[in-house]
Amino acid sequence: MEHENHMRPNASFGKVKPLQGRIVYLHPRKMGQGHRILKRMTMPDLRLFFRLGPSGRFIPLLAAFALAAPAAAEDAPLPYELAATPPDNRLATGIDDEPARYLQNTDIDENILLPGRRDDDDEESERKWSRDYIAVAAGVMNTPDYNGSDDRRFLPAFYVRGRYEGFSFSTRGTNFQVDLIRHRRGQKIDWKFGPIISLRNDRTGSVKDPQVDLLPDRKMAVEAGFFTGVTKTGVITSAYDQIGIRLVATKDISGRHGSWTASPTIDYGTPLSKRAYIGVSASVNFYGKGFGRYYYDVDPIGSAASGLPVYTRAGTKATAGKYTLGMAGAYALSGDLRKGFVLIGGAQYGRLLSRFADSPIVKDAGSADQWLFGAGLAYQF
After folding, report:
1. Which residue segments constitute the domains of the chain, with CATH numbers given?
2. How far apart are CA 309 and CA 303, in angstroms?
3. 166-184 pLDDT per residue, tens
């Protein structure tokens, strides 16, 4: 049965009777012992609407828009709900890994960045071990986008150095080392040996060069090893200048590049006054075959994706891959380098060598010359 109410205009007053929809009752085929009745609502008859004048049509449209807008706003996705669009996985990976980019394992040598607390003028003559101290620093660094890049970026940097009961420790970013040989009060020769752990994050996220960015991202490597060396105090300019040599050797324990690194370094620092200090350093970095293969070789898949040529020479044998020359200085705002606030800054020049410099990510897309600059504020107490 079908019942229908047609809508008619009132000719005498130009008004419209209320719109009424049609109701259709459908009797489907019986199923089992029972049956069901479906009721379907249909759209109103809109023929009368189109007979109205422009002003008459305009009012219902405004009403419909006013009622529909809140519902549309509720149903519309928020700016951060854009999952319907297929994500750019390459960009998403770079953004997710971006917080790790502040981690640095090529920072300016901490031995020339800020002198350690002197204890030879300590009034406590009965003290056996060197005086305890701690220095914290924060600042900003301008570095290559990756090791071998000619693009640059600014990164936050932080630094902690101290001594407790004769044991010295220091950290830069996520590098951390502890000297297990205790330093006695007033000694002029300081032997060093202890463990070191660091995180290497080179090319773990997106990079600025478009070709290198198309190469597969590298995963963060965890490297552990040891450092050893010796420092002599009172050498050339005064009783407080220092010269030191040391060796840092690490091995990848995370299964990323699966290789090793070794860096012999020589450094010298001297106070210019009670409030100023300057230091210089030089080092050479040696890398194992796996390191060169992981970070500097380009396989056929990477070549096809980036347009860079295939390259396999960086991983053929262990070699010296880079040398660095650094200079740093400190100026005590408190008037005494041993305590209070200290301005620190430095610069480091590095150059990639041989097979590493010939890699397409350096020779074609970057530069073998690597500059690093940093400045910040330290507090020593």
Report:
1. 2-75 (no CATH), 105-380 (2.40.160.40)
2. 6
3. 999 998 777 899 999 999 9
